[in-house]
């Protein structure tokens, strides 16, 4: 797979040369570039996993394929979440305030802080997120009923990741 820096160098070299069209293939990745109006325009990569966006202006640089894919998927995920809200009947989400490990209970032999159907208040502890050997109690910050638990005990969670869905009562 070509690295972004290698693609940038190719764009610069083609732009400075008299070459009008250029194709390059290595390790199953194929890059095609063509000059339009004196500037290099990169054609899509033939292998869908390693797609590289077209570069209209030589000053713009290609971003890694992963970044482009996540940018394209983000609106679709937001639309799905918007559609889910009325179906599951939740009004708010309790989100992780940090990166760490999610724990539903204070210890493995104890009951979980909350389960689906439990009522919570803003100061109710709903879980623990462990970060760097510190166990942080996470409060609901909303009033309502837990309608969905979105993560499993012991699962790694990201900052801002929804942990619970809560319906106002």
What does this structure look like?
With 169 residues, the protein is of the alpha+beta class. The protein has two domains: 4-69, no CATH class; 89-167, RNA polymerase II/Efflux pump adaptor protein, barrel-sandwich hybrid domain (OB fold (Dihydrolipoamide Acetyltransferase, E2P)). Helices cover 22% and strands 33% of the residues. The chain is built from two helices and eleven strands. The chain has helices at residues 4-16, 65-88, and strands spanning 21-26, 29-36, 39-43, 92-95, 100-103, 119-120, 125-131, 134-139, 144-149, 156-157, 162-167. The strands form three sheets. A four-stranded antiparallel β-sheet has the order 4-11-9-6, with no helix packed on it. A four-stranded antiparallel β-sheet has the order 8-7-5-10, with no helix packed on it. It has a three-stranded antiparallel β-sheet with strand order 1-2-3. Strand 2 (29-36) and strand 3 form a beta hairpin. The protein is elongated, with a radius of gyration of 24 Å. The model is unreliable at 43-71 and 76-87 (pLDDT under 50).
């Amino acid at each position: 797979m070509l690295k972004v820096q290698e693609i940038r160098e190719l764009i610069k070299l083609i732009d400075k040369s008299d070459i009008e069209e250029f194709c390059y293939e290595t390790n199953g990745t194929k890059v095609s570039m063509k000059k339009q109006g004196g500037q290099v325009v990169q054609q899509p990569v033939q292998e869908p996993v390693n797609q590289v966006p077209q570069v209209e202006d030589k000053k713009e640089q290609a971003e890694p394929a992963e970044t482009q894919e996540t940018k394209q998927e983000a609106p679709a995920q937001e639309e799905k979440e918007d559609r889910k809200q009325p179906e599951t009947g939740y009004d708010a989400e309790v989100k992780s305030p940090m990166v760490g490990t999610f724990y539903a209970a204070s210890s493995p032999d104890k009951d979980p802080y909350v389960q689906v159907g439990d009522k919570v208040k803003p100061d109710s502890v709903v879980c623990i997120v462990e970060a760097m050997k510190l166990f942080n109690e996470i409060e609901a910050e909303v009033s309502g009923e837990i309608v969905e638990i979105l993560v499993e005990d012991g699962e790694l969670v990201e900052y801002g990741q929804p942990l619970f869905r809560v319906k106002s009562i």
